[in-house]
Amino acid sequence: MSTIAAISTGQAAGGIGIVRISGENALNVADRIFKSVSGLKLNELSGYRAALGTVFLEEKPVDEAIATVFRAPKSYTGEDVVELSCHGGLYVTRQVLRAALSAGAVAAEPGEFTKRAFLNGKMDLTKAEAVMSIISAQGEQAKAAALGTLDGLLYRKISGISGELKGLAASLAAWVDYPDEEIEDLPDDKILSVLENAASSLSDLIARFDSGRAVLEGVDTAIVGKPNVGKSTLMNLLTGTEKSIVTEIAGTTRDIVEETAVVGGVVLRLCDTAGLRETDDKVESIGVARAKQKLETATLILAVFDASAPLEKQDKALFPLCKEKHAIAIVNKTDLPTKLDTKILDTVFNKVVYISAKENNGLQSLEQAIAEVLGTAAFDSSAATLMNERQLACCSAALDAVNEAHDALSSGVTRDAVQVCVDSAIESLDTLTGERATESVVNEIFSRFCVGK
Ligand code: GDP
């Protein structure tokens, strides 16, 4: 396999920039561009040793650097690895990378280091995917859940389920393939109980997926309401910035403003939409159309109402859009005398929350309502969590196959048919962990990584 190199630190100026080189030739490549102060070649160093020296490109010094040597298999990728830690300027790290490429390394593909770690048996697919989730984690719960997966929580859970099924498959196979041998017959109720346990564990994982995803990936959230109810003020309060323009002229939030905020442990991707009012203004009407579209695709809707004014047609126009969605009614401006009749809101929305965005009152009850509506209040980041759609699809396929096996046995179909279903469930679970994933699945997963990881 080729020796690869990439900048592994972020594409911005920083204290340190690291160029990572991995592969059979990593030490030779590094020795061609790095001269240590001690005069020792990196090839002479054992693993986990470091040397101070200078990196050269076309015989000119580029930067002073520390070279850290990792010897196969004790490295991130399982191959020989050299990490050159230089001063973190973008120009400098790019020069160091150029030096490595000119010395015989090839540019790493996105996620190629982690892919090699997987192919060399350093980690299963759930752990590789957890690496990606940790990089993109924006909140404490997300990081905790991803770290748990990296630590093997999901892998052990899935292996536990497939282990039971493999035991069952082996017994079924023995019984089906060697009917004449004196193999003890597995009673139906024993088989059914293994299948029921597997189905229950898989169902639990699947049921937790939505709240897990809310925690891990964040939630598309639309803030809607007629003009002047306080959407921009609320958005600014949640994000802690002055991004939305707050004015008293109706219709000033003309387009969609997007921001993220961590609310109740969940990352919300907020968009403050133009009010949904009829308008002749061309620019504003585009904003209104986009707001409607956002409403349709958002996972969470925060519908804002003005406590100091009676409910109007424009307010009511939101109701049908909020039905069958995770929607919270926010009655704002509670610092002013109340004119809004809120009874009808209780019938339309999962939750009604009273706040004063201007006076920063009621934010806590809003956080709580969001966590409850999204199911993240009860989310346990120390339990095994499915991290993405791919893993969900594998689990769902496994559950379907287990249920099919259960139905087949209960309705008296022959045992070899049961065995086929059990094998299919095992295959799905092995695909999830990567024990049996096809090359295209593996390539797809790692292509979503950043270069250098
Ligand atoms: P938007 O059009 O829905 O985005 O509304 P804005 O956030 O621009 O707010 C419209 C006006 O209402 C501004 O003058 C805000 O200062 C005011 N406002 C927002 N929230 C409150 C509140 O909780 N209480 C009071 N009294 N005024 C508010």
Overview of the structural elements:
The chain is an alpha/beta fold and 453 residues long. The protein is built from 17 helices and 13 strands. The strands form two sheets. The protein has a seven-stranded mixed beta sheet with strand order 3-4-5-6-2-1-7. A six-stranded mixed beta sheet has the order 9-10-8-11-12-13, with helices on both faces. Strand 12 (326-332), helix 13 and strand 13 (351-354) form a beta-alpha-beta unit. The radius of gyration is 29 Å and the shape is flat. Residues 225, 227-233, 246-248, 253, 332-333, 335-336, 356-358 line the site of guanosine-5'-diphosphate.
Distance, first to last CA? 18 Å
In terms of DSSP E residues, the strand content is: 15-25%
- Averaging pLDDT over every residue, what do you get? 87
Note the run of SSEs as H and E. EEHEEEEHEHHHHHHEHEEHEHHEHEHHHH
Ligands and ions found = guanosine-5'-diphosphate
Instruction: Classify the secondary structure makeup into a structural class.
Output: alpha/beta
- Largest beta-sheet details: 7 strands, mixed
User: How many separate helices?
Assistant: 17
Query: How are the strands of the biggest sheet laid out side by side?
Result: 3-4-5-6-2-1-7
Secondary structure topology:
Elements: E1 4-7, E2 16-22, H1 26-33, E3 34-36, E4 49-57, E5 60-70, E6 81-87, H2 90-102, E7 106-107, H3 112-119, H4 125-136, H5 140-150, H6 153-177, H7 188-207, H8 209-217, E8 219-224, H9 231-239, E9 257-263, E10 266-272, H10 282-297, E11 300-306, H11 313-316, H12 319-322, E12 326-332, H13 343-348, E13 351-354, H14 363-374, H15 389-410, H16 415-433, H17 439-447
Parallel strand pairs: 1-7, 8-10, 8-11, 11-12, 12-13
Antiparallel strand pairs: 1-2, 2-6, 3-4, 4-5, 5-6, 9-10
Bound molecules: guanosine-5'-diphosphate.
The site of guanosine-5'-diphosphate has 19 residues, from helix 9.
